[in-house]
Design brief:
The protein has one domain (8-146). Helices cover 72% and strands 0% of the residues. The chain has helices at residues 8-37, 48-84, 95-118, 131-146. It starts with 7 loop residues before the first helix and ends with a helix.
Length: 149
């Protein structure tokens, strides 16, 4: 269970950061869902030239927003984890802490990959398609659902 400090200002700040986190996750995850489930299917109805033009017309706008939303999602997530993780008890980590740690690891991997691509122009050698990040986003969503059980 999340325990907030007794400071009303902190609670409001946390809620604002959590809202920003959710919106940025919706932008990043939403793009991956659209790319994997819909944009990849354009090849079935368009010629290769039409597909290339249509995809680039979409991607030129995506490149302006999606990488930064990923960075905001990771940064806000790292901020929130410092306030909700809690202390490790004498019995070890709770289920919540274990699942949150796994979720943070996968999200950090996505963040490092995104920062390397956008800021340092380092393209990944492995997992060049969006299917692996899409899989991690789905896994992170599932972990988020099981954290509070």
């Amino acid at each position: 269970m999340i325990k907030f400090q007794k400071n009303k200002g902190f609670t409001i700040l946390f809620i604002i950061i959590h809202t920003i986190h959710l919106f940025s996750v919706f932008i990043y995850g939403g793009f991956l869902f659209v790319d994997i489930l819909f944009l990849s299917k354009m090849r079935q109805t368009l010629s290769e030239d039409e597909y290339t033009k249509a995809r680039e017309a979409i991607m030129m706008h995506v490149r302006k927003v999606v990488p930064y939303s990923l960075m905001v999602a990771v940064a806000s997530g790292l901020y929130m984890i410092t306030h909700v993780f809690g202390e490790i008890g004498p019995d070890g980590m709770s289920t919540f802490q274990i699942l949150l740690s796994i979720k943070a690891f996968f999200a950090s991997w996505l963040g490092i990959r995104g920062i390397n691509q956008k800021l340092f122009k380092i393209n990944p050698w492995l997992f060049k398609s969006h299917f692996f990040p899409f899989s991690l986003v789905v896994l992170i969503i599932l972990l988020s659902q099981f954290m509070y059980i």
